[in-house]
């Protein structure tokens, strides 16, 4: 296993951020581009939001998406268990 961390500089809402992680640089960059796109959509919906508010709203939206997917996954797993009986 490779213990080296990848270092990449990414951009969120026009600001540069150095990121270190275990993933490949390409993966980190792809995630950052996707997240920046989500943040831009929220920023465009209300130009009065600060960068911090945009980040919080984006996090809230992502958490909501995650919890919905988690519930869907649990329901699907329950259906699979029911069919296996």
Kindly describe this structure.
It is found in: Cytoplasm. InterPro entries: Bac_CellDiv_Activator, Cell_div_ZapA-like, Cell_div_ZapA-like_sf. Keywords: Cell cycle, Cell division, Cytoplasm, Septation. Helices cover 65% and strands 16% of the residues. The chain has one domain (6-84). It is an alpha+beta fold and 85 residues long. It contains 2 helices and 2 strands. The protein has helices spanning 25-45, 51-84; strands at 6-12, 15-21. The radius of gyration is 18 Å and the shape is flat. A two-stranded antiparallel sheet has the order 1-2. The mean pLDDT is 95.
- Percent of residues in helices comes to 55-70%
Number of domains: 1
Report the sheet with the most strands, covering strand number, pairing sense and barrel closure. Answer: 2 strands, antiparallel
**H-E order:** EEHH
Spatial sequence of strands, sheet with the most strands: 1-2
Find the count of extended strands (DSSP E, 2+ residues). Answer: 2
Shape: flat
Secondary-structure content class: alpha+beta
Our measurement of the CA-to-CA distance between the termini, rounded to an integer number of angstroms, reads 40 Å
In terms of DSSP E residues, the strand content is 15-25%
Mean pLDDT: 95
Number of helices: 2
Uncertain residue segments: none
- Computed over alpha carbons, the radius of gyration is 18 Å
């Amino acid at each position: 296993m490779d213990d080296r961390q990848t270092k990449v500089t990414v951009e969120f809402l026009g600001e540069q951020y150095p990121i270190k992680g275990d993933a490949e640089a390409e993966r980190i960059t792809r995630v950052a581009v996707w997240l920046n796109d989500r943040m831009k959509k929220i920023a465009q919906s209300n130009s009065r939001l600060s960068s911090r508010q945009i980040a919080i709203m984006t996090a809230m939206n992502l958490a909501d998406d995650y919890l919905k997917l988690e519930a869907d996954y649990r329901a699907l797993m329950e259906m699979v268990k029911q069919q296996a009986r």
